[in-house]
Amino acid sequence: MRLDKAKTAFGESHPEVEVSVHYFPFMIDPGTQPDGEEYMAYNRRRWGGDGWTRSMRQMGRREGAPYANWKTWPNTTHCGRLLLLADKHGLGDKVVGTLYRYCYEQGENVSLRETVARAAVEAGVPGGEEYVMSDAGLLE
Hints:
- The structure is a single chain.
- By secondary structure, the chain is mostly helical.
- The protein is about 55% helix and about 5% strand.
- The protein contains seven helices and two strands.
- α4 (about 75-90) runs antiparallel to α5, α4 (about 75-90) runs parallel beside α6 (about 115-125) and α5 (about 90-105) crosses α6 (about 115-125).
- The longest helix has 14 residues, at about 90-105.
- The protein is globular and about 50 Å long.
């Protein structure tokens, strides 16, 4: 949301400049279980609690992204794979927004191929569902 606002403001003040954003996959914690982990159990194991999320949640509430239903600490392998494909079609922003909503607002587990494949369909990524359900992009 903040990125969208910044792009809009910059575009309004600099209409001669084209802004493009590219997403690159990364994992915050490669040790996360393949199917993700229960949110609080993960935070207790890794940091002793989830106090570190307070400021992020406060900022999110101000921006309209309150992290209202964060149930799973995700393993982002399949999310990252989808982002690689989506970026080729100019759909990175749409995929990021969809995955954010699924994980943090709807309480869905975006570690799972099936969930990420559904996000690919919703975001309109050509061939996304098949891509996520395959092993394509795992090395990348």
